[in-house]
Amino acid sequence: MRKHESSVDIGDRLKNIRKKLNLPQKEMAVALKIAPSYLCEIEKDNGNPGPELFVRLASEFNVNMNYLFAGKGEMFSDAPLKIKTQECDVDDDIDTPEKLFWLLEKSVFFRGMIFSQANKLLYQEKETINHDLRKKKSKAGVKNE
């Protein structure tokens, strides 16, 4: 059975990016400022990366976030990451729908934060479901004895 489209595909695509760059896990982990074991867990779909990791991927390796999150487009972006812009700054208060929509459209960092939060929620939900299933299986095993 295919797993739900979430961090599973991000892990696979991150591994593909690393291999395309011809980098061992240790070197990529150092560049991303994470432990090699954590990079391994992310690639195995067991990690729960935060927005900082996505920003580092974009800034260090010019990774296209559309490719990483959705599998669409080229693996690498032609344009370097720009967090600050002329129209709006990521540090500004998002006090109007226009700013929110602008940030969603223009800011790789902001999209990364949103996708990261969604990914965390999916991961937590998966863990909760797995925990509940284990409890039900253990209760069913006790009743059958």
Q: Tell me, what is the CATH class?
A: Mainly Alpha
Overall mean pLDDT stands at 76
Order of helices and strands: HHHHHHH
Q: What's the alpha carbon Rg, rounded to whole Å?
A: 18 Å
Query: How much of the sequence is in beta strands?
Result: under 5%
Question: How does this model look, in words?
Answer:
This protein is 65% helix and 0% strand. The protein is globular, with a radius of gyration of 18 Å. It has one domain (7-144): lambda repressor-like DNA-binding domains (434 Repressor (Amino-terminal Domain), Orthogonal Bundle), CATH 1.10.260. The chain has helices at 7-20, 25-32, 36-43, 51-61, 65-70, 97-106, 108-144. The chain is mainly alpha-helical. The protein has seven helices and no strands.
What key phrases describe this protein's structure?
434 Repressor (Amino-terminal Domain); mainly alpha; globular; about 140 residues; about 0% strand; disordered N terminus
What are the SSEs and their pairings?
Elements: H1 7-20, H2 25-32, H3 36-43, H4 51-61, H5 65-70, H6 97-106, H7 108-144
Helix pairs in contact: 2-3, 4-7
Could you give a short description of this structure?
With 145 residues, the protein is an all-alpha fold. It has 7 helices and no strands. The protein has one domain (7-144): lambda repressor-like DNA-binding domains (434 Repressor (Amino-terminal Domain)).
